[in-house]
Design brief:
Layout lengths: L8 H7 L11 E2 L11 H6 L4 E10 L2 E10 L13 E7 L5 H12 L7 H14 L8 E7 L3 E6 L2 E6 L2 H12 L6 H7 L10
Length: about 200
């Protein structure tokens, strides 16, 4: 999806915070703020989880969010959709849940075309789940292949989407080879077996 960054800076800045929406900016390494261990509650949801990598999304030098990915033993980056995993985003800027949902669907369409009616349904489902975020807020998404996804803000459960196809494309925003942010994808997969597979 081509962007005219100078004409659409404001729109991009609102939408790019997408916990799930990545816009045209380069991924940069970021140091873990809390060490490499996932939150204690995540051990129950994702037994054996280990940090696969971390990175930071920036736009024109502005920090948008830090991202960290946890995976389980046997994870294969080229088949990410077949594995349970967790993605954490810690925001540096404020974004509305509605903007996050809209940009998320736009990014999901990089991976597979969606009929307009389906895109609208998925955007509504995401908007109902994704909260408005403020600097310092941490969202964690848990992907369960063949089932769907769960979302937390810190240790607070926000809800579930029981749609396997939606969930796979959603996490593909960061992990699919078709992501708009290949640099961030590589950083998130840096410690996984084989690194960022094509």
């Amino acid at each position: 999806m081509p962007w005219s960054p100078f004409s659409y800076v404001k729109r991009w800045a609102v939408a790019a915070g997408a916990a799930v929406a990545l816009a045209a900016a380069a991924g940069h390494p970021a140091l873990a703020r809390d060490g490499s261990a996932p939150p204690p509650w995540l051990h129950q949801a994702l037994p054996g989880a280990a940090l696969a990598g971390e990175g930071q999304l920036r736009f024109f030098g502005l920090r948008i969010y830090d991202a960290r990915l946890w995976v389980t033993p046997g994870f294969d980056a080229s088949r990410f959709g077949a594995h349970a995993l967790a993605l954490e985003l810690t925001y540096h800027r404020a974004f509305s849940g509605a903007a996050i949902a809209q940009r998320s669907v736009e990014e999901m369409q990089r991976q597979a075309p969606l009929e307009p009616a389906q895109a609208e349904r998925w955007q509504q489902r995401l908007a109902a789940l994704l909260p408005d975020v403020q600097p310092g807020d941490r969202l964690i998404g848990l992907y369960q292949p063949g089932q769907g996804m769960h979302l937390w803000r810190g240790s607070q459960a926000l809800g579930t989407i029981d749609d396997a196809a939606l969930a796979r494309l959603f996490f593909g925003i960061w992990l699919s080879p078709r992501t708009s942010e290949p640099g961030l994808r590589s950083a998130l997969l840096a410690r996984s077996p084989g690194g960022a597979a094509p």
